[in-house]
Amino acid sequence: MCTRMLILYQLHNVKHHEVFLTVLFDIQISDNWPGYSLDLFTYPQHYYGDLEYVLIPHGIIVDRTERLAKDIMQDIGDNDIVVLCVLKGGYKFCADLVEHFKNLSRNSERFISMKVDFVRLKSYHNDQSMQDMQIIGGDDLSKLTGKNVLIVEDIVGTGRTMKVLLNNIEKYKPKMIKVASLLVKRTSRPDGYRPDYYGFEIPDLFVVGYALDYNEHFRDLNHICVINDHGKTKYRV
């Protein structure tokens, strides 16, 4: 299909009467999307005053993740896979995605063997992306040789971090590499990289919640929210 079909469904903001449009294969949140008022949701009291608004409610994340799992399983077919989770931000998305994989496999005529491994990266200091990415954890990547690898990430911004990781993994000659990211950020500095699967395309905002952090804070927030200046100052290191 050459053109994207809009309006698989619409989610209306009760307060602003704006819409957030789903397109075929992905959900794009426009730059002028005002988000949801924090007053419409529950969230930890220790973050009161630190957030601007809710960008993506938890229930929508859960539903979208389930659909991504179905799409990925259809593409994988009967191939066994190694799921490589990028810590720490990707752990919640990865855990939910893998749980959906297991449910789909249990209810299917075919069984897919699945192993989960982890790698930890560092590419942000406060809210600024660093020039050099650090691989500061993870098991021996040589175990990926000849394997079908699905990298699970929380967010792809410029794409530079993921390209560095992919270059490192490709040295070990895996049979296949696919990338699934919960979020893709529209930035003014794109590096020409797009993951194979992603849940939401979002504006160039610093977001927290659903295990995405700001200096280790906000991981316990279920919704994906936009942090405000007060929150950045409060938790800056």
UniProtKB/TrEMBL annotation:
GO biological process annotation, one example: purine ribonucleoside salvage
MF GO annotations: hypoxanthine phosphoribosyltransferase activity; metal ion binding; nucleotide binding
Alphabetized InterPro entries for the sequence: HGPRT (IPR050408), Hxn_phspho_trans (IPR005904), PRTase-like (IPR029057), PRTase_dom (IPR000836)
Pathway the protein takes part in: Purine metabolism; IMP biosynthesis via salvage pathway; IMP from hypoxanthine: step 1/1
Similarity comment: Belongs to the purine/pyrimidine phosphoribosyltransferase family.
Enzyme class: transferase
PANTHER family: HYPOXANTHINE-GUANINE PHOSPHORIBOSYLTRANSFERASE, PHOSPHORIBOSYLTRANSFERASE DOMAIN-CONTAINING PROTEIN 1
Gene that specifies this protein: PRTFDC1
Protein name (Swiss-Prot/TrEMBL): Hypoxanthine phosphoribosyltransferase
GO CC term, one of those recorded: cytosol
Reaction(s) catalysed by this chain's protein: IMP + diphosphate = hypoxanthine + 5-phospho-alpha-D-ribose 1-diphosphate
Taxonomy of the source species: Eukaryota, Metazoa, Chordata, Craniata, Vertebrata
Alphabetic keyword roster: Cytoplasm, Glycosyltransferase, Magnesium, Metal-binding, Nucleotide-binding, Purine salvage, Transferase
EC nos: 2.4.2.8
Lineage: superkingdom: Eukaryota
Subcellular location: Cytoplasm
Gene3D superfamilies registered for this protein in UniProt: 3.40.50.2020
Chief location of this protein within or outside the cell: cytoplasm
Cofactors demanded by this protein: Mg(2+)
Limits of the Phosphoribosyltransferase domain: 60-214
